[in-house]
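INFO batch 0412 | record 1 of 1 | parsing
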Amino acid sequence: MSGSFQNLGYALQWPLFAGFCIYAYRTFVRYEEAPPEPKETAPTEIPEGLLPERPRPAPPPPDDPALREYNAYLAELAKNDAEKQNRTTA
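INFO prediction complete | emitting tokens
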């Protein structure tokens, strides 16, 4: 007789879970015997202007010295990597 509403909740929880499992099992068995009719609906399209547009990045300036230096560095790395790939071991 000593207990709280939490204990009562736990005592009622597991029979409810069992009841749900039985309900779900019976429903799936009925679906296997006579599956529900599929709905024939055409796919819908999102209307224009409904979603916000993504911001576009600003184009880089054409004569950026930092970008030119970085691209030269990447080209040098690619050249060194290609030279390492062409080596053979004998």
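INFO post-check: The radius of gyration is 33 Å.
INFO record closed
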